[in-house]
Amino acid sequence: MPGGDFHPFFFVVIAAWILVCGLGVVLFRNIIYSAVSMVFCFLGVAFAYALLNAELVAIVQILIYVGATSVVILFAIMLTEVQQSYGQLFHRQAIFAAPLAVAAAVVMTVMVVSTELADVGDTSLNLSVHALSSLLFNRYVFPFELVSLVLLAAMIGAIVLARRQGEKR
Amino acid sequence: MSPLDWWLLLAMLLFCIGAFGVLARRNTIVVIMSLELMLNAVNIALVAIAQFRAGSQGAGVLFSLFVITLAAAEVTVGLGIVIANYRAKRTVENDHFDEMKG
Amino acid sequence: MEAADSMKIAVILIVLLPLVGFITTLLFGKRMGGKAHIVPVALVTVTAALAVYAFGWVFQHQEEPFVWDAFSWIVAGRYHASWGFQVDTLTGIMLLVVGIIGMLTHYYSIGYMRGDGGYYRFFAYLNLFMFAMYMLILADNFLLLFLGWEGVGLCSYLLIGFWFDRKSASQAGKKAFLVNRVGDFGFTLGMFLVLVTTGTLQFAGVFDKAETIGAGTLLWICLLLFTGAVGKSAQFPLHVWLPDAMEGPTPVSALIHAATMVNAGVYMVARAYPLFAQSETAMLVVMVVGTFTAIFAACIAITQNDIKKVIAYSTISSLGFMFMALGAGAWVAGIFYLFVHGFFKGLLFLCSGSVIHAMGGEQDMRKMGGLRTRIPVTFWTMLIAAVALVGIFPLSGFWAKDEILGGAFAHGYYVVWLVGIVTAFLTAVFAFRMMFMTFWGESRADAEVQAHIHESPKVMTVPLVLLAIPAAAVGAVVGWPPEAGWIHRFLDPVFFAVEHEEFEWLGTGGALMAVSLAVALLGVYLAYVLYLRRRELPERLAARVPWAYEASLRKMYMDDIYEVVPVRSTIAFSRFLWTGFDVHVIDGAVNGIARLWGWFGDRLRPLQTGRVHNYAFGILAGALALVVIVGWVWGI
Questions:
Q1: In this structure, which of C148, C279, C307, C511 has its CB flanked by the most CB atoms within 10 Å?
Q2: Which residues of C touch B23 (CB under 8 A)?
Q3: Which residues on neighbouring strands pair with residue A40, listed in sequence order?
C-alpha cells in the first residue's frame, strides 16, 4: 500500500472515487450524468495530486479541468440539444473493445508489477512553486512558447469550426 | 508492491476505462470526455513517477502541466468539430460520420 | 596536277548539280508550273557534259585512276569514313551510260509528263535520282556506295509510286522497297564482314588485302554482297519487284529500271572484282543465279501481253546475262553488255512510252497493231532497239551477247552456253512478238483510240533518234574486233588479271558467233510465223500445253509463292502474335496484375470504414500488440 506521509486508507478512498466516477462517465446513458460524473472524477484526480505533494498541479487541475473544460463540455451538450443518447449506447465494436481494454489492463499490470521502480523512490520531496517556475521559464521555455502557439491555433480553429455557415464577419 | 506501483495501477485502470469509453461509446461528446479520462490517467502516472523518482520531479510536474494545457486546447477544437458536425447532420453519434468511407 | 584539280571540280559538280536541281525544284517547282523542267534539265545537261569530260580524263589517264579523299564524314574510334571519289575506267563507262541516258530521259520526260499534276515533283525526283546514281558510281568506298545505293532505291520507290493515287502504283512502290530491303540486308552484313575482316571499307584498302582473307570468310563476303546485287539487279528470287515497277512513268522505267539503277548490282560485283575473282564458289553462284534468271525471265516474257511487262522481263533476263558473264569470268563482256544494254533497253522503254503515248495510255499489245505507218519515228527507233536486243549483226547487242556466250564456252561452261543460246532464241521470239503485235497487222484498237493515234512531239522523238545511234553502233565501235576491241584494253586496269581469249574467225569463236546469229534469226522467223502469218497457231499451241502457258502467263507463280510462303505466314504469325500472344499473354499479364491489386484493394476496402472509432480501435490494438511483441522479444 502506498505509504509515506498519508494513510493508505486515503489512497484507497481516492482511487475508488476516481475509478467509480470514471466508470460513470463511460456508462451513464444520460449525457448530463456523464458530464457531472466527469467533473467529480477530475476533482478526485486533483485530490490525488494533493496526496502526491503536487499542490500546483492540483490547483491547475481544478482551475482548468473542473473550471474550464467541464464548462466547455456542458456548453457543447447544450448547443447540440441532445441530452440523452437514444438507441444503442455502444457500438457493435464494444464486444471487441471490452476485451481489448481488459487485455490492455492485464498487460500493463504485468508490466507495472514486473518492473522494479520503487527502489529509488523518495516520497518526501516537495518542489516549491518558485522552483517550478524557474524551471519553466529557463529550461522549458521553448515548449512553453510552443504551447502558447498551440493554444492560439486551437482558439482560432474552434472559432472557425463552431461559427455558423454564412456568418461572414 | 511499492507505493509507486499502486499509483501506476490506478492510472492504468483509469486509462483503460477511458479507452473503453473512446472505443465503445457512440456519443461523440462522451468520447471526448473519455479521452479526458485517459489524459488524466497519464497525468497521474507522470506526477506519481515525478514524486517517487529522484532527479525527475520538475520535469514530470511540468509535463503534466503541459498535458493539461494541450488537453484544454484539444477539447476546444474537438467540441468545435462536434458542433460543426451536429449542424450538418443533426446528430452527434459518430457512426453517422462515415463520409471518408473507402 | 592541274588536270586532277579540274577533275576535282568536275566530280564535285557532277554530284552537287543534280542535288541543287532537286532542292530548287522541290522548293520552287510548283510555282513554275509547266516550266518546272527548265532548271533540272539544264543542270542535268551540264552534268552530262561534265561526265563526258570526266570520261575523257580517264581516257587519257587509263593506268592511274583518279582518287580523291574529299573530306571526312564519320570518325568513330579506329574507323574512318570519308567522302572519297574514285574515277577509273569502269566508273568512266558508267558515267557515260548514266550521263547520256539520264540527260536524254530528262528531255524525253518534258514531252511525256506534260500536263501531269506532279510535273515538278517528277523532275525533282529524277534529279535526286541522278545525284544518288552519280554518288553510287563515283564512291571510293563501300559506305558511300551504299549511300548512293539506298538513294537510288529511295528514288525508285518514289517514282514507281509516282501516281500514288493509283493503289497498284503505291503497292508496287512498297513491293520494290520491301524486296530490296532483303537484298540490302545482305549487302549491309557483307559490308560489316568486310569492315571486320579488313578494318576498312575503302575499295583500294580492301582489295589490297583481298588475297589475305581466308577462303571461307571471302566466300561469305562475296555471297552477302551478291545478295545485295540480287535485290538491286532483280535476280531470281528477288526479281519480283521489277515487273511491278512498271507502274511508274515510262521514262522512269527507261532510266532507273533498265539503264542505270538495276545495273548497280552488276557494277558493284564488277567493282568487287578482286574479291570475287578470289572465290571460285562465289563466282559459280553468281553464274548459276544469272543463268537461271536469264532463261526464267525469258520464259515469262514470252506470254506477257503488257508491252512494258515484256520489256521488264527482258531486262531481268538481260541482267541475268550480265551476271552469267561475270560469274563465268568474262568480266569485260559483262560490262560491255551493261554498256550497250543501257542504250538499247533504255531506248526500247522510251519507244514503248511513245507507243503508249500514241495509244492514249493503252499498254495491252492485244489492242495494238498496225502502228508501223502511224508513228514511223517510234517504229524505226524501236526496231533498231529490238534488233540490237535480239543480237543481230551488226547492231550493238550482237557483239556483247556473242562475247558473253563465247566467254562461257571458252571457260568450259557448255551447259551455261546452251542455256544462253536458248535464252537468246527466246529473246528473239518475245522481242519480235512484241514488235509484230504492236506495229504490224491490222489495228485492234477501238475506233475512238484509232482516231487519236499520233506521233509523239519532237521533244520525245529527238531523244529517241539520238539514243538509237549508240544503240545501233556503239557495240561495233567499242567491241570491234571481238575479244580485242577498244573496251577490252580500256577495262584492263580494272580487271587486271583477266586474260583475253584469242578470237578466230574461222575457229570456235566464229562458229559460236554464227550459231548465235542463226538462233536469233530463227527466233525472229518463228515470231514472224506465229504472230503475223498464222495468228491462230499460238492459241493452239497454248491449248496443247496449257500448264506451260499458264505457268508462263502467271509469271511462274512467283508472286503466288511469295504470297503463300513469306507473306501469308508472316501475316498469320503476326495475327497469332496479336490475338494470341499480345492480347492474352502480354495484355493478360498487365491486366491480370492490375486486376490482382484491384482484387486486393476490394478485399481491403472494408477496412476503411470512415468511422473514427474503428481507427481508434486499430491504434490501441496495434499499440498493445507492439508492446506485447517488444516485451516478448526482450523477455520482459
A1: C307
A2: 613, 616-617, 620
A3: none
* Residue to substitute from A90, A92, A93, interface C, most C β-carbons within 10 A: A93
**pLDDT one-digit tens code per residue, C275-330:** 888 888 999 999 999 999 999 999 999 888 889 999 999 999 999 999 999 998 88
Question: What are the structural domains, with CATH classification, of chain B?
Answer: 3-90 (1.10.287.3510)
Domain boundaries, given as residue ranges, for chain A: 1-90, 125-169
- Confidence at C455, pLDDT banded by 50, 70, 90: confident
Between chains, do B25 and A90 touch, taking CB under 8 Å as contact? Answer: yes
* Best residue of C611, C615, C624 to probe chain B, by most B CBs closer than 10 Å: C611
Distance between terminal CA atoms of chain A?
Answer: 59
Residue of C nearest to B22 (CA): C613
**Contact check, Cβ <8 Å, B101/C612:** no
Cell of A53: 505533494
| Least confident span in C547-551, C566-570, C588-592 | C547-551
CA angle C448, C452, C457 (to 5 degrees): 165
Q: What is the dihedral of CA C616, C621, C623, C625, to 10 degrees?
A: -170
C-alpha cell, C436: 509484230
* Distance of alpha carbon C154 from alpha carbon C173, whole angstroms: 10
Indicate the pLDDT class of residue C81, thresholds 50, 70 and 90: confident
Interface of B with C in 6-35 (CB under 8 A): 19, 22-24, 31
**CA-CA distance, C495 to B96, in Å (whole number)?**
100
Q: What is the mean pLDDT of residues C590-604?
A: 92
Give the sign of the dihedral formed by CA C29, CA C31, CA C32, CA C34. Answer: positive
Q: What 8-state DSSP symbol labels residue C441?
A: S
Q: Does B42 touch chain C (CB under 8 A)?
A: no
Q: Looking at residue C67, what is its pLDDT?
A: 85
Task: Reduce the DSSP state of residue C61 to 3 states and report it.
Answer: coil
> Percent helix, strand, coil in chain B (nearest 5)?
80, 5, 15
Q: Which three cell numbers stand for residue A125?
A: 520531496
Beta bridge partners of C69: C84
Contacts of A132 in chain B (CB under 8 A): 58, 61-62
CA-based nearest residue to A25, from A13, A35, A12: A35
Identify all chain B residues contacting C620, using CB atoms and an 8 Å cutoff: 19, 23
Query: Which one-letter amino acid corresponds to residue C153?
Result: G
The set of chains that have 3 or more CB pairs under 8 A with A is B, C
Give the pLDDT score at A1: 43
Residue C66 and residue C539: Cα distance in Å, rounded? 57
Q: Is the pLDDT of residue A3 over 50?
A: no
**What is the Cα–Cα distance from C239 to C262, expressed in whole angstroms?**
11
Q: Tell me the C-alpha distance between C384 and C387, whole Å.
A: 5
pLDDT 10s digits, C377-414: 999 999 999 999 988 888 888 888 888 888 888 888 89
H-helix or E-strand containing C76?
Answer: strand C66-76
CB neighbour burial string for C561-594, b if at least 16 within 10 angstroms, e if fewer: ebeeeeeeeeeeeeeeeeeeeeeeeeeeeeeeee
Residue C447: pLDDT band (50, 70, 90) is confident
Which among C613, C627, C636 has the least Cβ separation from residue A93? C613
**Interchain CB contact of A94 with B (< 8 Å):** yes
> CB-based contacts of C126: which residues, under 8 Å, 6+ apart?
C40, C44, C105, C106, C109, C155, C159, C251, C252, C255
Domain A1-90 has CATH 1.20.120.1200: yes
How many Å apart are CA C471 and CA C381, to the nearest integer?
9
Q: Which of B76, B82, B86 to mutate to test the interface with A (most CBs of A within 10 A)?
A: B76
Mean per-residue pLDDT, C216-222: 91
